[in-house]
Every structure is written in structure tokens, then in C-alpha cells.
Amino acid sequence: MEQTYLMIKPDGVSRKLTGELINRFEKKGFTLRAAKMITISEELAKEHYGEHADKPFFPGLINFITSGPVFAMVLEGNNVIKEARKMMGATNPEEASPGTIRGDFATEMSENIIHGSDSKESAKREINLFFPEL
Ligand code: IDP
């Protein structure tokens, strides 16, 4: 069964959206396989977002993602990588449709509530990075 890595970012956790978001994924029919609340180190953040190291928003992104606890999850189900991305909505909340997580709960790119793996390769890499015990 396919698995993906999801992470409720510090804005989503501090706004107490964790339960609401887990609820959405479970109601859809996906299974929560692993979950933990963690505060990410700068080192782990840089590794996770390595592909963006050259972007102008990188320092702000690292600062933000390490600013408070995140809720890290492994979600399992049919086509879960693509379906969870659909449920999250576009990266830029201004472009995310109502009914999606970012469309319903966010207004700006830098605080867009949730991360989700975008391919089989990144799902594998990110699950390994955050849940090496699995
Ligand atoms: P994704 O989270 O939808 O996969 P990515 O392009 O991988 O989107 O970007 C990772 C994260 O970096 C985004 O979720 C967002 O928080 C942040 N980000 C991306 N582009 C920008 C930008 O242009 N300005 C500020 N933050 C950005």
C-alpha cells in the first residue's frame, strides 16, 4: 500500500488544526501509520528542504519550520501521495481552491499549514528522514 509523508507546519499546530486535518484524511479513507509531535532542528530542516537551498525564501522557510513544533505523519492508502496533495491544495493559498486545506485555512505562501510529499521518491526519502525506525 502506498505511503506518504505529511507534516502539519508550526502555523497549523499553533492554530490547533491538527485534529481537523487528521480528521479530513481519515474520513477520506486513509490510515495513519505513524505520527509524532517534534520540533525540527535546523540541520533536519535544511536536509528536508534541500532542493530549495538556492531560493531567496530558503532562510525564511528554515526559520519558520523550526519556529515551533510540527506534527509529522505517515499516511497510507490508495494513491495517497497524489490524493493528499489534492486535499492540501495549491502551494500558494491564494490559488488554492475552497474545500482544500490551504484554500480553507491559509492566506499566504509562507504560512501554508501543511507539507506533503510530491512523488514516490520524495515520500520514501522524507519517511526515512523523519521516521528512520519504520
Ligand atoms: P509544496 O510545499 O507545495 O510542495 P514547494 O514548492 O516544495 O511547495 O515549497 C516548499 C515550501 O516553501 C512551500 O510549502 C512554502 O511554504 C515555501 N515556499 C515556496 N515558494 C515560496 C515563495 O515564493 N515564497 C515564500 N515561501 C515559499
UniProtKB/TrEMBL annotation:
It catalyses: a 2'-deoxyribonucleoside 5'-diphosphate + ATP = a 2'-deoxyribonucleoside 5'-triphosphate + ADP; a ribonucleoside 5'-diphosphate + ATP = a ribonucleoside 5'-triphosphate + ADP. SMART domains: NDK. One of its GO terms (cellular component) is cytoplasm. Residues 1-134 form the Nucleoside diphosphate kinase-like domain. The modification Phosphoserine is found at residue 122. Its cofactor is Mg(2+). One of its GO terms (biological process) is CTP biosynthetic process. Its EC number is 2.7.4.6. ATP binds at residues 9, 57, 85, 91, 102, 112. The keyword Transferase applies. It comes from the Bacteria. It is an enzyme of class 2 (transferase). The modification Phosphothreonine is found at residue 91. Homotetramer. This is Nucleoside diphosphate kinase. It comes from Salisediminibacterium beveridgei. The gene is ndk.
